[in-house]
Specification:
Blueprint lengths: L6 H7 L23 H14 L1 H6 L2 E6 L2 E6 L6 E3 L4 E2 L1 H18 L9 E8 L9 E10 L3 E11 L2 E11 L2 H4 L4 H15 L20 H19 L4 H10 L1 H5 L2 E3 L19 E4 L6 E3 L4 E2 L1 H19 L8 E12 L9 E10 L3 E9 L6 E13 L3
Helix pairs in contact: 2-6, 4-10
Length: 390
């Protein structure tokens, strides 16, 4: 029996809008705070426009129903992570999920305050495909004195989720929130909402969530890139080849991810054995900033860089003679944020393959800036190895 036709599989592909779910006021007693939903839409639009990375990518706020939000990330070539099968970079989904959840947090508090991401987990169901915008929703599940718990979902096509996410945020409180942050956000929202009262909160009604059976494009796209992907895997054997690969990946290039210079043999053109450690570096770039007040790197951008490094490390293990050509496919991603990653400093990344089986690979990734002994983030992820034979 084809599992894809079973009721269970159909149910897994169907998703309900987070905006329609009933809010438990015992868990989120201050949902919406002082603002109406229309005002929150304007406030969050100003918020994502203030963040350099989301401003650059053109993220827009479609709807707010506090404490839930819906946003759109328009399609653009810079989102590509797999240039052979023309798939969206998995790190883009992480960045988008972090932005969604962080924005929802603001709508669940009595007054806006700065709440850094403590940890974020994504379960990947399928990759995003070229040419379609990304839609996402997030909502606040519970607010306590010290924490805010959220969930999110992202899709492109109706009824076909790309991923789900769980994000936990630390409340810094009014005392540790920069002076004027809440007041400026609220004032701008009220002013804009008053002058644009005709804006409808139902603008996202054109983004259906119902079931769909259209999968032909996915199959065709995968088949078209299979041979190219096999050659791609088999060619990642030297430091120079890896550096060239990173330069060819639009989203990796956009966030300034590259390789650290070799400090010892082998040379850049010599074949790297799988066990040889490779260090990655994300450059300090204004567009990578998520909090301009510090400035701090966008948590989703940092996660995207770590995810890319892990993918390449798995790729290196299956690019050598005697190994079957296999492409790593991300299944889940979990990151803990340990300290602020400064936006004016480069970020170093190292990976450790914890277990490499025939079908599954587990990778641990560490990121730091000034000292390896002071990590800014630690991540863990699982990959399934997709055969490229046939």
């Amino acid at each position: 029996m084809d599992v894809s036709t079973t009721p269970l599989a159909e149910a897994a592909d169907t998703h309900q809008s987070l905006l329609t779910l009933v809010v438990n006021l015992r868990d989120v007693p201050c949902a919406g705070g002082e603002l109406e939903d229309v005002a929150w839409q304007h406030a969050l639009s100003r918020f994502v426009a203030f963040i350099p990375h989301t401003q650059r990518l053109g993220v827009t706020v479609e709807t707010v129903k506090a404490p839930a939000v819906r946003m759109q990330l328009p399609w653009q070539p810079a989102l590509i992570g797999d240039p052979h099968r023309r798939l969206v970079h998995g790190g883009v989904l992480t960045m988008f999920a972090d932005t969604l959840c962080g924005s929802a947090v603001l709508t669940g508090l009595p007054m806006p305050e700065v709440c850094p991401t403590l940890d974020l987990r994504l379960d990947h169901y399928r990759p995003g495909i070229e040419g379609l915008p990304l839609y996402g929703e997030a909502r606040v599940l519970r607010v306590t004195e010290s924490m805010v718990f959220t969930e999110a979902q992202i899709w492109q096509q109706p009824g076909r989720l790309l991923c789900r996410a769980i994000g936990n945020f630390v409340r810094l409180g009014e005392r540790n929130t920069p002076s004027g942050f809440a007041e400026a956000l609220l004032a701008a929202a009220k002013m804009t909402a008053a002058s644009s009262s005709a804006v409808s909160t139902g603008a996202a009604a054109h983004i259906p969530l119902g079931e769909t059976t259209s999968t032909a494009s996915d199959v065709e796209q995968n088949a078209r890139g299979l041979l190219s992907a096999r050659r791609f895997v088999e060619e990642q054997r030297t430091h120079a080849q890896l550096a060239a690969l990173l330069a060819s990946l639009p989203y990796a290039k956009a966030i300034g991810l590259g390789l650290c210079a070799l400090e010892e043999a082998p040379t850049a053109d010599a074949e790297l054995p799988p066990e040889h450690a490779v260090r990655y570096e994300m450059a300090a770039m204004p567009d990578n900033v998520g909090n301009p007040l510090l400035p701090a790197v966008h948590g989703g951008v940092l996660a995207a860089a770590m995810e890319t490094a892990a993918t390449l490390e798995v790729l290196r293990r299956y690019s050598h003679a005697g190994q079957e050509a296999r492409l790593p496919k991300l299944i889940d991603f979990s990151i803990d944020y340990l300290a602020t990653a400064r936006g004016d400093s480069a970020t170093c990344i190292e990976c450790e393959v914890i277990r490499a089986g025939r079908r599954m690979v587990n990778v641990r990734v560490s990121a730091w800036q000034r000292s390896l002994g002071r990590l800014v983030a630690s991540a863990r992820m699982h990959f399934v190895l997709e055969s490229l034979e046939g």
